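Training component of the fellowship. As part of building independent skills, the fellow (R.M.) carried out the full modelling exercise for a liganded target. The chosen ligand was adenosine-5'-diphosphate. The inputs are recorded below so that the supervisory panel can assess the work.
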Amino acid sequence: MQKKLEIIQGDITKATVDAIVNAANEWMLGGGGVDGAIHRAAGAKLLEACKAFPEVRTKVRCPTGDVRITPAFELAAKFVIHTVGPIWRGGHDDEDRLLESCYRRSMQLAVWVGCRSIAFPAISCGAYGFPIRRAADISVRTIQTMLNNGAPLDRVVLIAFERETFQAWQDALSHEHNALT
Ligand code: ADP
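Fellow's submitted model of the complex:
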């Protein structure tokens, strides 16, 4: 089970997996960070596909903690799963549960459309300010729980853009592993 979860350092737009996850914002019309990189690499059709989602509230196409899926257009992946992580507000605004929801629902949606592999960036850990070690623990725990419960995925890849993120995920994975042995 452990082997299915990989941690690598790199650029998620280059990932050769069935689905890559985008740390989007609620409006879903692109932004900075990984969102901007994915839109640039996927091409203009990605923005058109995002615009096609109806606004569920003013300027909200995808509420925080939820997911939407589009084709990946010019990327090597087949799909982009857009999820909106919580903005860190000190930890008393349901941030942990919402971040967990991003990882869980992204995996569920990937399985639903027949994906066998998925790659994640460190959702909420850039502009949204979620503390990286806390986010790393949540992401690793959520993914491992789903894999242990039989989610039919061959590979889940956590892609760290920075060394610090890579280290936080490595540490979270070894804590998780130690807790299980
Ligand atoms: P958020 O608004 O959810 O915090 P950001 O895009 O600002 O999203 O940052 C999320 C994480 O994605 C950060 O750790 C950032 O360094 C990382 N990141 C930025 N560009 C890329 C990329 N091309 N591939 C993978 N991760 C990236």
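The panel noted the following from the submitted structure. The longest helix spans residues 95-112. The radius of gyration is 15 Å.
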